[in-house]
Amino acid sequence: MQADRTFNIATLIEEQKTGRFAAGLLFWCFLIMLMDGYDQTAVSFAAPAIIKDWHVSRGGFGPVFGAGLFGTLIGSFIFGYLGDRLGRKKAIIIGSLFFGALTYASVWVTSLQELMLLRFLAGIGMGGVVPNSVALVAEYAPKRLRATWVTLMFSGFSIGAGSGGLVSSALIHRFGWPVMFAVGGVGSLLVALLLIFTLPESAKLLVLRQRDPQMLRKLVARLRPDLNIPADAAFVAGEAREKQQRFVLKLIFSDGLAAITPLLWIVFIANSMALYFLQNWLPILMEGMGIDPRGAGLITMMFSVGGVIGGLVLCRFVDRHGVAAIISLPVIGLPVVAALGHGSSQGWLMLAVFATGFCVVGAQYGLYAVAGMIYPTSFRSAGVGSAISVGKIGSVSGPVIGGLLLSMHLPITQLFYAASLLFLIAAVFSTILALLYRARFGEQPAAEAAFEPPQRSLLHDS
């Protein structure tokens, strides 16, 4: 019977056992996120050496940091759309090749204007990788593990961002600041080339777009080696609203998302502003507090280490409690960040920066996971990409405002007080988001409640 050869792709994914396919998917997405994180922060760790080499002011790096993050704003929206149209894999590889080449080209810049232009262009590729990686992992993850998988994948970003501290401490004094961009550019290009042969396309997206049935059968056979998939097997999405449709902006405000999407954006903006203000300026601020360059790099590395641990701790709570799980971290982070400016010893600063990263980066992980839960497959990449794009308003303005405040020669304690206010905003609006989310969708992620009917078997109900 035809029904015996028609498989529900959503149920196939939901009932999978975590094995080689899942491990490979997470490994390769983790690796490209690691390079994305390294390349985004390479300029921050190179900045103190560039300031001394070129004799430029610290505040002059505000536009450089902002330009790169403005590029990620544009890239996350453009590549989010391309990922839904061309496929997650193609969008990730194109974005990776793009930012890898432009990061490597930064080795030869001779002015802040040249560096700003290349950071902007590279940022377009960096921003494009994130929403498609989130969407790809979310579409292969069982619902009970979706936040955990997204967080494990995205921990690569923080590890990559933190590894810049190790590279700068070990190599800049020997080879100069260009080594930061050489390592990032070459590494990103190598990983992008490997992804061509190793990264799977989204099986759900292939079903929805009705593309390449032969590739789809091979992917399902790798995903579920315990099943015998016939050569003439057919696949259905198995989700009520998951059908092929052209993305239009109003979709991310439909079916109960009219208030949830803007609230998600506000929390993204506030948390991203705090995250990128701290991530970009910490090496310079630490040196301004009297820490030597190598020590400043190691202290800043603790920001990313704390972020990885915070994200891993938070992910299980997101799987169980959804949006409500992200409220606690901004509340804890507020007094910690306010106290950073009063640090007196390198040991205390390492602990405080670790705790700060735990809260702000951990909350960012939670937001990526929640965004991946809210939107359905048909426009998940665009939905996540739009949230990340709007969040880049905070990513861009945070470093730029930091540069302006530094140019005003404000005390460092006041700079950290200003950053702590962003945690208050994030806490208030994430609370409102959680309450509205629960009222509209209950305990289930929105994509499940609004778009997925009960699933009873692997076989489509014909």
Description:
The protein has 462 residues and is mainly α. It has one domain: Growth Hormone, Chain: A. It has 16 helices and 2 strands. It has helices spanning 9-14, 20-54, 61-86, 88-105, 112-140, 146-175, 178-198, 203-209, 213-223, 260-288, 293-321, 328-340, 346-374, 380-407, 412-441, 446-451; strands spanning 6-8, 234-236. It has a two-stranded parallel sheet. It is globular. The termini are close together. The chain crosses the membrane at residues 21-38, 58-79, 91-110, 116-137, 149-173, 179-199, 251-276, 296-315, 322-342, 348-375, 387-409, 415-437. One of its GO terms (cellular component) is plasma membrane. This is 4-hydroxybenzoate transporter. Keywords: Membrane, Transmembrane, Transmembrane helix. Residues 25-438 form the Major facilitator superfamily (MFS) profile domain.
Give, in spatial order, the strands making up the sheet with the most strands: 1-2
Sum up the overall morphology in one term: globular
- Main β-sheet, in a few words? 2 strands, parallel
- How much is the average pLDDT? 82
**Helix-and-strand structural type:** mainly alpha
Count the strands? 2
Low-confidence stretches: 240-244, 445-462
Taken in chain order, the helices and strands follow as: EHHHHHHHHHEHHHHHHH
User: How many helices?
Assistant: 16
> Helix content range of the residues, please?
over 70%
Distance between the first and last residues' Cα = 10 Å
CATH architecture group name: Up-down Bundle
Give me some keywords for this one.
462 residues, mainly alpha, Growth Hormone, Chain: A, 75% helix, 1% strand, MFS, carboxylic acid transmembrane transporter activity, transmembrane, Sugar_transporter_CS, transmembrane helix
